[in-house]
Write a sequence for this structure.
């Protein structure tokens, strides 16, 4: 009778999955958007980094500049917020840049700068509309609905 063939541990295990090599190869093949801002060229990542997504959730209502710095560093590198502030970037320009970057990380060339600016302006108008209801004079000038009178009879 023959004995079962014993495989040593090295032969019985499958090759390890090398995600490092796979992701590097996949990333190299994906298009990436570049931008030039204040004389510096930045290359956006091929997809949103997980760290950005996690930090964005955590700091979405934060007013701490340190939180914004850390968030931006994952996309554009360290000290970008300070550099852009020193160069005179406005809040509107910053918002347009973030909208444009978010869209073009996912699909390079998807959104133009002009379209990003229009989206920013729409968001600002919506935010102002929610914050500002009609003033007292406008509310009083609005015609009131008349209540229907009851006949007093029960059905």
């Amino acid at each position: 009778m023959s004995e079962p063939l014993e495989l040593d541990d090295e032969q019985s295990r499958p090759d390890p999955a090398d995600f490092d090599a796979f992701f590097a190869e996949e990333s190299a093949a994906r298009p990436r958007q570049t931008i030039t801002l204040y004389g510096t060229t930045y290359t956006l990542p091929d997809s949103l980094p997980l760290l950005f997504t996690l930090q964005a959730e955590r700091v979405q209502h934060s007013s701490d500049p340190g939180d914004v710095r850390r968030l931006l560093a994952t996309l554009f590198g360290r000290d970008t917020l300070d550099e852009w502030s020193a160069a005179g970037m406005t809040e509107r320009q910053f918002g347009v840049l973030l909208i444009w970057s978010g869209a073009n990380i996912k699909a390079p060339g998807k959104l133009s700068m002009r379209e990003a600016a229009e989206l920013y302006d729409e968001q600002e108008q919506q935010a102002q509309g929610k914050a500002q209801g009609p003033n007292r004079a406008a509310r009083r000038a609005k015609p009131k609905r008349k209540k229907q009178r009851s006949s007093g009879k029960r059905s």
In short: Residues 113-131 form the longest helix (19 residues). The CA atoms of residues 66 and 81 lie 9 Å apart.
